[in-house]
Amino acid sequence: MDLIIFADGMYQLVPVTQDLIGSISLVDAFDFFDLCEVLRLHLTEYHDYPINEHHMKDGSGLFYGCIMR
Predict the structure, then answer these.
(1) How far apart are CA 49 and CA 10, in angstroms?
(2) N or C: which terminus of the chain carries fewer CB neighbours within 10 A?
């Protein structure tokens, strides 16, 4: 699973590693969409109107979604 991040005019695929989700405790079985939603809530800050974007908390870019390879 990779995160789709938009930074510097390019889309980047960032692999989801154990280090990335290490601080998130998952108590139930999750499907792909649930895990993507949990990661979005944990890793981003939402900027409301007029921006309406999810910015990564670490400043690496804009969160666009997840992809499974």
Answers:
(1) 23
(2) C
* Local structure of 15: helix, strand or coil: strand
Quick one: 8 exposed, middle or buried, by C-beta within 10 A (0-12, 13-18, 19+)?
Answer: exposed
Q: How many CA atoms lie within 13 A of 2 on its CB side?
A: 11
**Neighbour tally for 43: CB within 10 Å:** 21
Q: Where are the alpha helices (DSSP H) in the chain?
A: 18-21, 32-43
Handedness of CA 38, 42, 51, 59 (dihedral sign): negative
| Residue 41 vs residue 27, higher pLDDT | 41
62 contact partners, CB below 8 Å, separation of at least 6: 5, 6, 7, 53, 54, 55, 56
